[in-house]
């Protein structure tokens, strides 16, 4: 059988940019996630310290990681979309 | 079992099957069967991702673990969601660009290496089977309260329905089943969380007046020369046993034997705390709380707050979600949790479930399940789990194949973002559902996996029936995706691309369907064998295998130019063997074998922290040693 993508995929001039940005954002999130794990391991009792509105660090950090994932994802999509549009002649929609 | 429960269940199953038959015409080609023709809209695919991912582990397992271990269960939610960051930033677009039907396609795109085809396919099969087990266990868990059927009946039912779905319409019907189920799961989980907040917290939860709150008794006791006496007329202490450094007294009253926990207060005064028990007799008879087990005589549902913000005998009424968290986590709040101890009483096997009071601020921080304040090894185990959850998502075959169902890399990216939004929102809900079960008197001591559906039942039959039917559809959808991934690995990767024995597109679809049948049968057997194990724990292990076997290969293939086909092959083999090996020799598995966990040769429960680096090391070393052939391959590829 011929090995090819299920749907034809054209050249993507923004590929290198998206890959760089993806790696940077992966590292940013990875560091913040690692910080969460490290605090749990090194100072677990402080995860119960109240931060605000009666919520402790564990809850705020945990919710924060979930919300941050979405915020970074939206930022990444916006940046990628803009770059794709820019490199495909500013038509506002990338050819991918 | 109610007519409504059965009606909704039958409706959902009929809907799923109808979708399969409707889309059957689109599954005649291999592209249609394995990749839904790459015609799925990114928005639909994003919610279908959520449907794939929010499996029995997420819904049943995480809620169950939060209900029994508080914040430690929520750590799974955080880890599972964080894994999508790896999928979005590293894997989504390149995988879509390189692959065709399976994740092996993408791995092998640059190398055309027979070793990759074979090992990646085997890895897909292994991970899919590891992930299938908890789904099937979850199916069995659901049918018992929903339809009044035994565990094995649920497992067989799911197996049969899923085989029908996959054998008729493949990825297209699976996608739409996942889309509908993912959306319904999020909507009705939101309804459940709103209901929990509207009901509020109470120190005597009575399930909205449906089930009277049971106050467990305390008896005064004295101990003289090692003999304990109960301070109640007509009650005799006939035996004292010790397990997990806790003493239990067997009390005889009116011919009924019950087990109580022996406690002493700060002043040294002794008392007996009423517990629940299951006694298994040699002939197979089982006693629950001293009487023969029957449909009417089961372990009582438990879980309540003993004090809310330092006050006893109170109810809050409706409260907001953050207030609910603040009150449960308050240092002056006390939650009545239940632990268990197992020991032998002559020839009887006894399991005693006994209450313990936990301060609120211990509930909403890690430590009740994961020993983050324990030995260095226990801490490493925790770090190992969190690493596997982070790196496992982007290596799950049934998730990766969903990237082939959309038309472009940009659509793959967008669908991942929709998935992150939907899944992240759901995971926030899991904390409220789990805590609602923990404090709402709905925990089934024999199986914490049932916490979320039982929480729903405390709000009435409709919500329970709806949630249970959706949860059942959840299992159906996820199992379908896993079976398609496994089917693709055998038919496309091994038989076609590795062995070259598939002669036509039509034959590949036919073989894929036959493989789906075989994998479904294996999944049924495993689902029955693993009954009773927390499904989230099992999924955690599947993540560890995926993260060890697949992620290093994907990552290095994308980012390290010196990677060779043999390096990838070695990495997959090392990842699979080391992760499975560590699991099989772990204390958890020793317990399942019926052996002493302390004798396990490898003390780690979670293999990721060893097996993932080993897999990376294998790819680097072997790639460097076989660099020439790697360069030759790249040159050949142009």
Question: What does this protein look like?
Answer:
The complex is a heterodimer of chains A (96) and B (638). Chain A contains 2 helices and 2 strands. Chain A has 96 residues and is mainly alpha-helical. Chain A has one domain. Chain A has a two-stranded antiparallel ribbon. Chain B has 638 residues and is α+β, with helices and mostly antiparallel strands. Chain B has 22 helices and 13 strands. In chain B, the strands form 2 sheets. In chain B, strands 9-8-7-12-11-10-13 form a 7-stranded antiparallel beta sheet. In chain B, strand 5 and strand 6 (270-274) form a beta hairpin. Chain B is globular. The model of chain B has no long low-confidence stretch (mean pLDDT 85).
Give the tags.
heterodimer; A: 96 residues; mainly alpha; two-stranded antiparallel ribbon; 2 strands; elongated; disordered N terminus; disordered C terminus; B: 638 residues; alpha+beta; Sodium/glucose cotransporter; 2 domains; 7-stranded antiparallel beta sheet; 6-stranded antiparallel beta sheet; 13 strands; globular
Query: Average pLDDT of chain B, to the nearest integer?
Result: 85
Q: What is the chain-wise order of helices and strands of chain A? A: HEEH
Using a beta-carbon cutoff below 8 angstroms, give the protein chain pair with the largest interface and the number of residues from each chain. Answer: A-B, 50 and 74 residues
- Tally of individual domains of chain A: 1
Tell me, briefly, the overall form of chain A.
elongated
- Percent strand of chain B equals 5-15%
Low-confidence stretches of chain A: 1-5, 92-96
**General shape of chain B:** globular
- The rounded Rg of chain A comes to 20 Å
Architecture (CATH level 2) name of the largest domain in chain B? Up-down Bundle
| Proportion of helical residues of chain B | 55-70%
What is the count of β-strands of chain A?
2
Report the average pLDDT across residues of chain A: 83
What is the number of helical segments of chain B per DSSP (H or I, 4+ residues)?
Answer: 22
- Summarize the amount of helix of chain A as a percent range: 55-70%
Q: Which structural class should the secondary elements of chain A be placed in?
A: mainly alpha
Query: Whole-Å distance between the termini of chain B?
Result: 64 Å
Total beta strands of chain B: 13
Number of domains of chain B: 2
